[in-house]
Amino acid sequence: MSERPLKLAVVGHTNTGKTSLVRTLLRSSEFGQVADRGGTTRQITSSCLSVNGEVLVELFDSPGLENAPELIEALEELPGPRHEGLERIAHLIGDDHLREHFDHESRVLELMLEADIALYVIDAREPVLEKYQDELDILGQCGKPIVAVLNFTASPASREAQWRDALARVRLHSVLAFDAVVRDPATELRLFQKISSLLDDFAPVIERWLEHRRDEEEQRATAALATIAEMLIDLAAFGDTAAEAGQDIAWEQMQQRVRQREQACVDTLLDLYRFGREDREDDDLPTSGGRWDDDLFDTETLRHYGIRTGTWAGIGAGTGAAVDVGTGGLTLGTGTLAGAVIGTGAGLLRSFGRTLTARIRGQVVLMIDEATLRLLASRQVELLGALIRRGHASQTPVRTTGADLWDNRRLPRILRQARHHPEWSSLNPGHRGNDERRRAVDRLSRQLRELLETP
Ligand SMILES: Nc1nc2c(ncn2[C@@H]2O[C@H](COP(=O)(O)OP(=O)(O)O)[C@@H](O)[C@H]2O)c(=O)[nH]1
Ligand SMILES: [Mg+2]
User: Fold this and answer.
1) 10 Å Cβ neighbour count for 109?
2) Of 121, 174, 351, 383, which cross-links 16 as Cys (Cβ 3.0–4.6 Å)?
């Protein structure tokens, strides 16, 4: 059994996705530089997979091997029997002149001698050229177990079969297709299982790491679902009162607070999944710079999500609901009426009435309508689903497919109940973070989890 961390070297040709793979394993888009052109990674850079401060795995990212054909010639010219590959490599590393000439390569070879195992990353779209076979030959001489990682296998140009065949010919049978930009827990598990099968001594270390990762993912998802549930409860229970004449301004201000509340939720989700703020511009997450391009209060946005908006007497959705406090009647005409309240207007009034000091005729209660709540829930749960599956090397935007989370069926009971509990919303003045609210958040979280898990 090994008492020290596993040293894992990531090697391969330039631009095959080595740094991307490390990012995905680390769950960090902050590691190294990823670029379309070659030679971005010039030095060996290391980082750790640790549990409670204890390092379990050391990851080493390396510069690409660029000059394998010449290197193999140089190795062959060195003195000594032909099968003594390891000695020749040690010789090359120790020779100042050769070292200087094969700068990148000798660093990689040194790393190979130090590491316990190497991941050889392949761009599967590339034909199996001789230079790659030379690379494999040299790496093979280092005497360390190697797992071949076929990247870009999702591409139509992938030549996965040819690569598998070529790898088998050099007796490399540990091969795995692993798209570095997609986070697929099952493939990641298989990768570690392969490593474990090649290194018995490190099996317990790897098992501990996998267990930690499972727990971490579970906790993260729980926290993320609670974040969404809290936002939804906050907004379902959010209400304001205004004089009828001033309701447009009041509604404008409310919309602003709703947008901010949603943005806070997006920020928390991105932080939880460690997509750094500075990366958002590049990552285009979930739209530009972590902001939704579509406005919450736009009917087009609702339509994109397949949320029916035409059910309320032809009044535009994405508006607030207005209930006349004095009469309990609904006010029409200014466009601030929405559906959810029609059925529950009287109840709403009662609950809000309690919080009102002045029951003046002509006063209205404004709330977020049901269509907007659906939209908020749908896009946050969709964002979460995308973040869970997103690799940290991903450079493309998250695309929302746009589907109402509840399929246009009724909102969950707990959200409808929240409408009558203004004290549950942290946006309302009389907010109390009581047990009832906590239970409501828990219940909604569980329901959201079911929706997240059913594809
Ligand atoms: N579509 C796709 N692009 C990838 C994948 N892995 C890496 N890339 C892209 O390929 C380029 C090179 O990746 P990088 O990690 O810098 O390669 P390295 O030179 O081997 O470290 C970057 O533009 C990455 O965004 C992948 O699995 N799928
Ligand atoms: Mg790199």
Assistant:
1) 25
2) 121
